[in-house]
Specification:
The complex is a heterodimer of chains A (122) and B (336). Chain A is mostly helical. Chain A has 3 helices and 3 strands. Chain A has a domain at 2-44. Chain A has a two-stranded antiparallel sheet with strand order 1-2. Chain B contains 10 helices and 15 strands. Classes of the chains: A mainly alpha (122), B alpha/beta (336). Strand 3 (101-104) of chain A pairs antiparallel with strand 3 of chain B, so a sheet runs across the interface.
């Protein structure tokens, strides 16, 4: 009963004079075409190059840079190379007035023994 | 030639082949008109440095002055084994102390091996800044600075006759540094931020005297920490009370050290399996009190360690042992 009812309605729908069915089919095909075109365009678009390089490393394009910076900086914007090994400033104080306790004479160390142990392990 | 430098909380000690120099790592700031103060100090022959119109007495004189005038506050460039973050004049004073101890280099880029503490296991702090600051200070004087861990420097002196195998403990004022060494390779090194200052501070607090006074009694009285306490309380003078408190806190410090050493043996993966009993050598100024080794042995027997200790040895001349270990390392470094 149910199957017969559905097929009866489809027959009416496909055979009716009203162009609604054609419109739906055409618009679906257009949307599908646009979607495929978009996919094709995305695939064809060249990949954007990486703009950041670290300490002379070579980028995909073969370009290199001596420090961490943007490859296209804005005008008048420079970069600063930080010197992490810079010496700290310590104020000089006159030490000529200081006197320490002194013990003169040969200072006993185990340097000969240490050398012997070191040579034995070589 | 070469030079070794022990950068301790309480003393800076330099060693050359024929000379050892010591300077107490302390200073005291004098208030008043700088010109008048400087003339007075010069007449008395008291060492001082001047900075920003302030005059500082440096070294042993500062320590002695603080004993006599209880109101005078002794300042320390270092605290707990590292640069004192609360003392703004510490670096210039340290520079003056190091400059006087090292003098001018005997040759260009003469090697100076200086000691640094190992990373403490009981404090959230690193030692990198301390190491860099000292390196810069030494380099600015024309030396080539090379750092070595304090406990390793002590092992070079104390374990050299034992194939560089065993345990070395350097007991300083601010810290105790420990090293487990096997055939010259340090397996484990660490430090605890307790040392002689911990003993002085708590002994002073418990007996109602200043830390400086407790330190003075520790260093200058006839204190023997192994001596039985019988009769100690009969003479209820201030000094006997301080001595009794010092003895208690020596015990607390040694037990703390042994408990942490035992924990390292239990938890660390790098501890070697010693096949034979190994020696435990001790150095540093805090270990110089009479009866120390016997007292340490008693505590070791109570606490125990998971390895067999053949003997507990106080290194020869414990106060200068780290500095001499640095010198030995510097001589080898120069000859390589």
């Amino acid at each position: 009963m149910v199957q017969r009812g559905i097929s009866h309605r489809l027959t009416i729908f496909t055979t009716m004079e009203f162009p609604l069915f054609e419109l739906i089919i055409l618009s679906s095909i257009t949307v599908l075409q646009l979607f495929l075109l978009e996919l094709w365009l995305i695939k064809k678009k060249p990949k954007e190059e990486h703009k950041y390089f670290i300490n002379g490393g070579t980028a995909q394009s073969g370009e290199s840079s001596p420090s961490l910076r943007h490859s296209h900086p804005s005008k008048d914007v420079g970069h600063i190379d930080l010197d992490y090994q810079s010496k700290m400033y310590i104020e000089n104080v006159d030490s000529s007035t200081i006197v320490s306790t002194q013990e003169e004479g040969k200072v006993s160390t185990k340097v000969d023994k240490l050398r012997e142990l070191k040579n034995r392990r070589r | 030639m070469a030079v070794g430098l022990d950068c301790g909380t309480s003393f800076y000690i330099s060693s050359r082949a024929d000379l050892i120099k010591k300077q107490r790592n302390a200073f005291l700031t004098l208030d008043g008109e700088p010109g008048v103060i400087k003339r007075m100090l010069s007449r008395k022959g008291i060492p001082y440095v001047e900075r920003n119109n302030r005059t500082h007495i440096v070294g042993q004189y500062a320590f002695d002055y603080a004993q006599i005038f209880s109101g005078a506050q002794l300042k320390r460039p270092m605290k707990d084994g590292l640069l004192n973050p609360g003392e703004r004049d510490s670096l210039p004073v340290l520079k003056a102390i190091i400059e006087e101890l090292l003098g001018k280099p005997e040759s260009e880029n003469e090697t100076c091996v200086y000691c640094v503490p190992s990373k403490p296991i009981d404090r959230e702090t690193l030692v990198n800044y301390h190491e860099d600051a000292l390196s810069n200070l030494i380099e600015s004087l024309g030396y080539k600075p090379v750092s070595v861990e304090e406990s390793v420097a002590l092992a070079y002196e104390g374990l050299a006759d034992h194939d560089l195998t065993g345990i070395a403990i350097s007991m300083g004022a601010g810290m105790c540094n420990l090293c487990v060494m096997y055939a010259g390779m340090p397996a484990v090194t660490f430090s605890v931020a307790r040392g002689g200052d911990f003993i002085d501070t708590h002994a002073g607090l418990d007996t109602g005297v200043s830390t400086a006074k407790a330190q003075y009694v520790k260093e200058s009285s006839n204190l023997n920490i192994f001596k039985q306490t019988d009769g100690m309380y009969d003479d209820e003078t201030e000094q006997s009370n301080i001595q009794s408190a010092l003895r208690s806190y020596y015990g607390a410090l040694i037990r703390y050290l042994l408990a942490n050493l035992r924990k390292q043996f239990t938890n660390a993966d790098d501890i070697p399996n010693f096949q034979n009993p190994v020696p435990l050598v001790i150095g540093g100024g805090t270990a110089m009190v009479d009866g120390f080794v016997d007292f340490f042995k008693v505590q070791l027997e109570k606490e125990g360690l998971p390895i067999d200790i053949s003997d507990v040895i106080l290194v020869e001349n414990p106060h200068t042992a780290v500095s001499r270990g640095c010198l030995a390392d510097a001589l080898i470094e120069e000859s390589d």
